[in-house]
Amino acid sequence: MGRRVRYDGGAKPVGGAVVGRWREEGRVVVFCPEVSGGLPVPRAPAEIVGGDGADVLDGVARVLTASGEDVSRQFVRGARLALEAAQEAGVRVALLKESSPSCGSLRVYDGRFAGTRVPGRGVTTALLRRAGVRVFGEDQIAEAAVCVRELDRFGSA
User: Fold this and answer.
1) In this predicted structure, what is the pLDDT of residue 156?
2) Mean pLDDT in each 10-residue stretch from start to end of the chain (157 residues)?
3) What is the pLDDT at residue 4?
4) How far apart are CA 75 and CA 78, in angstroms?
5) For residue 51, what pLDDT is reported?
6) What secondary structure letter does DSSP report for 8?
7) Own/partner pairs for 62-70, CB < 8 Å, 24+ apart?
8) If you ran DSSP here, which 8-state letter would residue 107 be given?
9) Phi, psi for residue 49 in degrees, rounded to 5
10) Helix H or strand E encompassing 125
11) Which of 116, 133, 121, 7 shows the shortest CA–CA distance to 71?
C-alpha cells in the first residue's frame, strides 16, 4: 500500500480505481506481518524451507534467511497479529503481496534463494485462510472485487 516495509526497505504500492474506492470506503487495513512480528526494515531476505506457510504453522517447515537464521517465530507471530487485526476489523477479504513468505497467496520462493517461485502460500495467508478469510494476491484485484461485491450483496462483507 506504499509503505516502505519490504525486506530491502522499499515499497511496492498497489493502486488503481478499485483499491482507491476501498480506501475511500474505509475498507483497507494496512498491515505488515513481518514488521509486526518483530523484523526490521531493511532485513535479510527470507524464504520458506521445507514446504509452505501452512507447513510453517504446523511446525514442519521453517522460514530461514540466506545465512540460515531461523525467523519462523517472527513470521508466525506476525501472522497471528495480522489475524487479530483482521478479526477486529471484520475483514473477510484480504489483498496481499504475492510471492512473499508471509503474504504469498499463489506462490512463494522455493527456499533455495535462487529466485525460483513455486506454488504455495505464505505464513499469514495460510493462517488467514484457516480462519475463513478469502485471500488474493495484488495481481488478483478483479477477483477480489467480485468476492467483495458478492459478500456485500449477501450482507457478509
Assistant:
1) 57
2) 87 88 94 97 97 98 98 98 97 95 97 97 98 96 96 77
3) 87
4) 5
5) 97
6) T
7) 63/101, 63/123, 64/111, 66/113, 69/44
8) E
9) -115, 125
10) helix 123-130
11) 7
How far is it, in rounded angstroms, from Cα 103 to Cα 82? 10
Q: What is the rounded radius of gyration, in angstroms, for the C-alpha atoms of the chain? A: 15
CB contact at 8 A, 6 and 101: no
23-31 contacts at long range (C-beta below 8 A, 24 or more positions apart): 27/148, 28/1, 29/85, 29/86, 29/89, 29/91, 30/1, 30/3, 31/81, 31/82, 31/85, 31/86
Q: How many CB atoms lie within 10 A of CB 92?
A: 15
Residue 39 near residue 29 (C-beta atoms within 8 A): no
Cell of 104: 504469498
**pLDDT of amino acid 1:** 77
Angle between helices 17-24 and 141-153 (to 10 degrees): 40
